[in-house]
Design brief:
Strand order of the largest sheet: 14-13-12-15-17-16
Structural class: alpha/beta
Number of helices: 16
Length: about 675
């Protein structure tokens, strides 16, 4: 009897491989190239040479470490050794030492693989549009037209001193300073265009730019730096108009979906510097895109206002964030900060000011302050509950009498991550799902295709996975159709060909058949997926309950859903699964990217920055885990929609029937 062939055994092995930032994961046969594995999963990697290793467009990076969210221990040794082509590229400096050509590297073990922007053919859809708001325009940066006479032998004053005198005489700007970058440009500028200068002044106290001729237009950039996505908006500082927008995935997603992984990735000054540079480079890239859209240069961008959660805020400043990950979660700085663009590596006007709005606490950052600034709960009598649903859930409850805030550990499930077929909102992701409650027929729609699945040939759909908006739909629709009960368990007695058991005997529900997908297999929603959604929505609802109890109220007057995720979910279906208290459907509103709106307000109206500082100090931060009732609130809120609370807006639906907790204990 012949001995077994080791090569055949290896070919039968498979290993888990996850491609970031999409978050797409699958078992991949040993010996498969990364490019082929990605292709099988519907992840598009650039490959002009069709896998011959000659175009060098398919570069990827292996992320090192134990990624608990995906239960993957990733290491470079889990790939085949470097091919000669790759070694030569590294030697010539055309490829980083930690990069591989995906068409050459073969899978030998578990891997977490990051696909950089330049290697991806499909980019995430970042839905962070600004709201329509009336904003007073009184910016921190202004341009002044100045005529500077030529120097004479009769005066011993330098160019700057003469310019400072004219600014004081003509504009009332006294005791001015000048940035070194602007000072260096003064000799050339004042000798062109007949001495006519455009002088850019920040905060009535510092000259930050001098150019020859008259250029009175000024521009600023508002930035919402999220854990997963970054959105930037170019604004006119004269009219207040939002002229252009651009967005990108936060490149740090290759180091984990959540803020705790980001903190862990900043272990050591070099790693922290690398994480900071990732964001700085992306902001520079977004600035270039914005400038090109309106035919200006990046040097015309003279101020930036940036908001972020506290961890992203600290990493962006190059501040070690590790104190934010341990009790008492203390930030290094809470108040607003003003830093020169050049000091942060942002490729705009080097002397431009980067204003970071104040943070509230360790897990509630300046993005939350910006939301409050935009929505103004502190200015009226109505009690508003504002929920910013992102990678983390942040809540504000308040009115003119009092404001409370909290951070909820929702995890990334609501954005599609860590689910069996979850993915980010990229073309091909299922974004809407409907199930007929009578026939239990299912139809869905994918990003990039306006048609529902029942209106298009199966082989033309090409679904790749499920993104966050569809996740909410699925749970609500399964509940309404009686396919799951109020505990979230599948009801196996319901006759449906889509409800089946996998090879391990666990129940799953087929959302898209293999003929409808671009990955060659059925896309399913599992019992574990439902549990992950229940935990996430339960945390949000329990957080709201804690705040309401401390406020002495049963219900808010209004519920405002902010953030990119909040702008695309179906609010009625989110209510049906009990994601937030029922204040009446007419009082539950999506307000879009309120954090971006708040950043734009602070950019355009300098006086509102003082208001933002005041908000950050007035808000009472509540640590939910310290509340004695939080655990029970959380347990009750994991049922669908809730163990006890009424949802009058759902009257008549299956979701509106109160569950019996004893039945599901």
């Amino acid at each position: 009897m012949s001995s077994p062939n080791p090569q055949e055994n290896q070919e039968k092995e498979s290993h888990r491989v996850c491609f970031m930032p999409m978050g797409t994961m699958a078992e991949v046969a040993a010996g498969t190239t990364l490019r082929d594995a990605a292709k099988d999963l519907g992840v598009a990697i650039e490959a002009v040479c069709n896998g011959r290793g000659s175009c060098y467009k398919c570069r990827v990076r292996v992320l090192e470490g134990h990624f608990e969210d995906h239960d993957i221990r990733s290491h470079g040794d889990n790939l085949s050794s470097h091919r000669q082509t790759e070694s030569r590229l590294i030697e010539k400096g055309r490829m980083r030492a930690d990069e591989r050509l995906s068409c050459q590297a073969r899978v030998l073990g578990e891997l977490m693989v990051y696909i950089p922007d330049e290697s991806r053919r499909t980019h995430a859809v970042v839905r962070k549009s600004l709201g329509q708001r009336e904003i007073n325009v009184d910016p921190m940066v202004r341009n002044y037209r100045v005529e500077l006479p030529p120097a004479t032998l009769a005066s011993r004053l330098g160019d700057w001193e003469r310019l400072a005198d004219i600014l004081e005489e003509q504009q009332g700007l006294a005791a001015m300073n000048i940035d070194l970058h602007a000072l260096r440009t003064l000799p050339q500028a004042q000798r062109t265009n007949g001495g006519v200068l455009t002088v850019t002044v920040w905060n009535d106290c510092e000259v930050i730019r001098i150019v020859g001729g008259e250029r009175l237009a000024t521009y600023g950039m508002a930035v919402d730096l999220g854990t997963t996505t970054i959105a930037a908006y170019l604004c006119s500082l004269e009219t207040g108009e939002a002229l252009a927008s651009a967005s990108a995935l936060n490149p740090q997603v290759g180091h984990g979906d959540d803020i705790m992984n980001r903190i862990a990735s900043c272990n050591g000054s070099l790693k922290l510097a690398a994480m900071q540079k990732m964001v700085a480079d992306t902001l520079s890239q977004l600035a270039r895109q914005l400038a090109m859209q309106v035919s200006i240069t990046t040097d015309d961008i003279s101020e930036v206002v940036l908001v972020a959660n506290t961890v992203m805020h600290h990493i962006f400043l190059g501040i070690d964030p590790h104190a934010l990950g341990v009790v008492p979660f203390a930030p290094t700085v809470c108040r607003s900060v003003d830093i020169k663009a050049r000091d942060l590596g942002i490729s705009i006007l080097p002397s431009a000011n980067i204003h970071l709005m104040p943070v509230e606490a360790g897990f509630v950052g300046s993005d939350n302050v910006a939301v409050a600034l935009a929505e103004g709960p502190h200015t009226g009598e109505a009690l508003q509950l504002i929920i910013d649903i992102g990678t983390n859930g942040e809540l504000i409850l308040g009115n003119q009498d009092r404001m409370l805030s909290a951070s909820c550990p929702t995890g990334p499930a609501l954005e599609g991550a860590n689910l069996s077929f979850g993915m980010r909102a990229t073309p091909g992701a299922i974004e809407r799902v409907r199930i007929d409650p009578t026939t239990r027929e299912l139809r869905f729609r994918v990003i990039g295709n306006p048609y529902w699945s029942n209106k298009i040939a199966a082989n033309e759909i090409g679904a790749l996975g499920i993104c966050g908006s569809a996740v909410i739909d699925i749970v609500a629709e399964l509940l309404n159709a009686g396919l799951i009960d109020h505990s979230g368990r599948f009801v196996e007695e319901i006759g449906s060909e889509r409800l089946r058991r996998d090879t391990d005997g666990r129940l799953e529900f087929v959302i898209a058949w293999a003929t409808q997908t671009g990955i060659g297999r059925d896309i399913c929603f599992t019992q574990a997926d439902i549990r992950a959604v229940q935990l996430a929505k339960g945390a949000l609802y329990a957080g709201a309950q804690v705040l309401l109890r401390k406020f002495g109220r049963q219900q808010p007057d209004k519920v405002l859903i902010a953030g990119a995720f909040g702008s695309v979910i179906d609010l009625g279906r989110a209510l049906a699964i009990g994601m937030f208290p029922d204040s009446g459907l007419e009082n539950i509103l999506s307000v879009g990217n309120a954090a971006g709106d708040g950043a734009r307000i602070a950019l355009l109206d300098a006086r509102r920055r003082a208001e933002a500082d005041q908000i950050a100090r007035l808000v009472e931060y509540i640590e939910l885990t310290a509340d004695p009732h939080f655990n029970q609130d959380f347990v009750d809120a994991t049922l669908l929609p809730h163990a006890e609370d009424d949802f009058p807006s759902l009257k008549g639906s299956l979701a509106g029937q109160r569950p019996n907790p004893a039945e599901h204990a």
